[in-house]
Amino acid sequence: MGRSPRLFVVSGPAGVGKGTLVSLVRKRRPNLGLPVSATTRSPRIGEVNGVSYHFLTDQEFDDRVKRGEFLEWARVHTNRYGTLKSEVDACLARGQSVLLEIDMQGGISVRKAYPNAVLIFIEPPSWDVLVERLRGRGTESEESLAVRLQTAKRELGQAHTYDVRIVNDDLQEAVDELDRTLDTYERE
Ligand code: ADP
Ligand code: 5GP
Q1: Closest residue (by CA) to atom 18 of ligand 1?
Q2: Which residue of 5, 136, 139, 156 sits 20 to 30 Å from the alpha carbon of 114, by its own alpha carbon?
Q3: Pocket mutation for ligand 1, best pick of 99, 137, 166, 178 (most atoms within 8 Å of C-beta)
Q4: Which ligand has an atom closest to residue 24 CA?
């Protein structure tokens, strides 16, 4: 049976393990397109401009919005994040499936632009585990933790609007399930 490249969206609350899962699935699928988003947030320690994100000033982000360069963009927590059309088109032109790790507002916008997109929601095994992981990552101040947890509550309540839900409890099992999901839709 043949395969066709698909557009996938992965969303879920901050700290649920999206970044971890995506980087592991990428190792198994070197041909998966992972466009680099743009953001107005400041880089965290270890993040590299053009690799983790394209880090932009507010003015630069505004200019790109005006020029229509975003497939979607949204305000998440206290900053703006957006998917650049040029990045997605480059992957699709190479015949690659594309995986966007973006928030749920972005996911809904992508579905409008690409009704064939597959929306995957990553869930924590429990609320307490989510809080533990987010704290354990050690990247957030108490204030930014509180904002992320507030957003997380809202997102968990909307998980049913996504096509697929994967619980990230055992990491290896969750990677397997994500990998299988990509496979299933590419062969559809
Ligand atoms: P996100 O990208 O969703 O914000 P991260 O990938 O940064 O989340 O993961 C948050 C923290 O949880 C990290 O410290 C990561 O190592 C840890 N983590 C991710 N998945 C699991 C898992 N299945 N079990 C235990 N810890 C996990
Ligand atoms: P972080 O600041 O932790 O890197 O990301 C915060 C949130 O922004 C995450 O939920 C992440 O999925 C989301 N995000 C990252 N890039 C984009 C994007 O291009 N568009 C949208 N809508 N959300 C994004």
Answers
A1: 17
A2: 156
A3: 137
A4: 1
Predicted model pTM: 0.95
CA atoms within 13 A of residue 79's CA, in its CB half-sphere? 18
CB 6 within 8 A of CB 97: yes
Cβ-in-10-Å burial (0-12, 13-18, 19+) of 105 comes to middle
Residue 12's Cβ-count burial label (10 Å; 0-12, 13-18, 19+) is buried
Q: In 3D, which of 134, 83, 80, 87 has the Cα closest to residue 107? A: 83
Amino acid symbol at 176? D
Place of tokens 């963009």: 73
Ligand 1 mean position, distance from CA 15 (Å): 6
Long-range contacts of 51-56 (CB under 8 A, 24+ apart): 53/81, 54/84
